[in-house]
User: What shape does this take?
Amino acid sequence: MPKAVIRPFHLAFPVHCLAAARRFYGGVMGCAEGRSADQWIDFNLFGHQIVAHLVPGQGGAGQGGPAHHNPVDGHDVPVPHFGVVLERADWDALAARLTAAGVTFGIAPHVRFAGQAGEQATMFFHDPSGNALEFKSFADDAMLFATEILP
Assistant: This one.
């Protein structure tokens, strides 16, 4: 199968406060800000467009939204969540940046599925509105959808 050209994704999500979203995504995460208005802010999340939309009184799991978790490799993974698959150096730098900023991890940076198909470095945390984020990195991107260990 020919390799697909990956295009940037777009994700709009609710936040309870645009100033808090700007501090977290722009300041803590280091995402460049794009367009904005009174009700929303565009951010560049590793080349992808995410848009924080003001929805007073709402947000993710921490703000009255769903608080569901599924078990994955011994951890309770929050659902829903979003994030990006990064190169390992970028993943390491983000983990260090978040740690230095005092971000509390729901699932601390670690390697899951060690020695198995899909082995990956992963971390989970929440933004100020309670939206769950996961960032991961594969030693080999071919393992992203692997169901068995490749030769």
User: Anything to note?
Assistant: The radius of gyration is 16 Å. The helical segments are 18-28, 88-100.
